[in-house]
Amino acid sequence: MSKLPFQLGIHPINWVGEDVKEHGDDTTCAQILDDIQRLGLKGTEMGRKYPTDPATLREELSKRNINLISQWKSVLFSDPAYRQAELDDYRRHAEFLQSMGSKVISTAEVGGSLHFDPRRTPHEKEVLRLSDAEWHVLAEGLNQAGAIAQEHGLKLTYHHHGGTVVEQPEEIDRLMELTDPSLVYLLFDTGHAYYGGADPLEVLRKHYDRIAYIHLKDIRPDVLDQARAEQSDFVGCIRRGVFTVPGDGCIDFAPILQELITRGYNGWAMLEGEQDPAIHNPYEYAKRSLSYMESLY
């Protein structure tokens, strides 16, 4: 991947599910990091199998010459009652990532989400979209969290995400309009853009100036269509195998990579599959995906 001006890493979610716990649950941290090293990649995100003690984690990563690029952070800023506790937690998160040498925080609002909002009850069926008031409260909270990130030499990169209130193209647009460009950046995710009903290339072009981090993920459209026809929720879609690595689904990555190269993107991009590793071997799929992207240039 030396032809690419940006840095390519891989997310441990290819080996171990975050939202679907049974996916790869027996996989160890050593197996994941050894595979990443074999792939020749130098960056990873935090995963639930990685040690949480910074010294231990630093040792495991450094002996394989791998960097910790980011870690997901759920926030609940759309409800003012949660604001101060959420900001305090965000500061602790930023302190950890700063200690690991990371530069971006993958951040997503969970208010209204079917699966991630702590206020939701079992058996509810759909995401609760935000009111105008909640949108403004969310933006205010993100700006404050973005300032905390900045204090620690980090950028808050907002992850538009399936099954959340910032999922559809118009929701991405609104979030970008309401937040401060100097404090809130965008984590552009190709798979989640498609899942949310957007053309990933259009999202990239429209919001390029806000993008500070990227996830490269593909979609199996037939699986998605079937899941939608059966009214499957987001986690159900993952279980069905909606997501896969670049080159194995329907997204054309040639113009996406060309756009990034032309514009001189020099941040990190993570390969993501988020599928059952027992069926789709993470190392083999990643290897093929790397070959696919290399073949585009």
UniProtKB/TrEMBL annotation:
Pfam families in UniProt: AP_endonuc_2
InterPro entries hit by this protein: IolE/MocC, IolE/XylAMocC-like, Xyl_isomerase-like_sf, Xyl_isomerase-like_TIM-brl
PANTHER family from the UniProt entry: HYDROXYPYRUVATE ISOMERASE, INOSOSE DEHYDRATASE
NCBIfam families the record matches: myo_inos_iolE
Domain (Xylose isomerase-like TIM barrel): residue spans on this chain: 34-295
N-terminal signal peptide: none
Organism the protein comes from: Paenibacillus polysaccharolyticus
Protein name: Inosose dehydratase
